[in-house]
Amino acid sequence: MSNNRYPEEFKIEAVRQITDKGYSVADVSRRLDVSVHSLYAWVKKYGPEAEKHAAQTEEQAELKRLRKELQRVTEERDILKKAAVDSSGQCNSFTILLICMSTSDETSKTYIHTR
């Protein structure tokens, strides 16, 4: 067995011998001096169900990406919840501070309103 890189046409023809002509993978492997593992990978890539395998692979990659993103967002949310509780002593509360100053007849008054 050799570690040569094979052209795509060679791989497609090897797959045709297995799928169309009915030769066994072991037989084609021996005749072409290609590993059985490589032939199975080529059948998966170039065989009759290649589109199905490609679609499944894309779906699996998308699912993996979405799960990773969900985990990241959940962790960020948990961190923000903890920070909100730690900083104010109360969960998800806020205070509005309104300061009104009025001057009349040389007296200054300050009003502070909170909600």
List keywords for this structure.
115 residues, alpha+beta, two-stranded antiparallel sheet, 2 domains, 2 strands
Strands in their spatial order, largest beta sheet? 1-2
Total E-strand runs: 2
Question: What pattern of helices and strands is seen along the backbone?
Answer: HHHHEE
Q: Please, how many domains?
A: 2
Q: Name the helicity range.
A: 55-70%
> Average pLDDT across residues?
79
Describe this structure in words.
It is a single chain. The chain has helices spanning 8-19, 25-32, 36-46, 50-88, and strands spanning 97-104, 107-114. The protein is α+β, with helices and mostly antiparallel strands. It folds into two domains: 1-48; 67-115, no CATH class. Helix 1 (8-19) crosses helix 3 (36-46) and helix 3 packs across helix 4.
Describe this structure in a few short sentences.
Helices cover 61% and strands 14% of the residues. The chain is α+β, with helices and mostly antiparallel strands and 115 residues long.
List strands and helices in order, with pairings:
Layout: H1 8-19, H2 25-32, H3 36-46, H4 50-88, E1 97-104, E2 107-114
Antiparallel strand pairs: 1-2
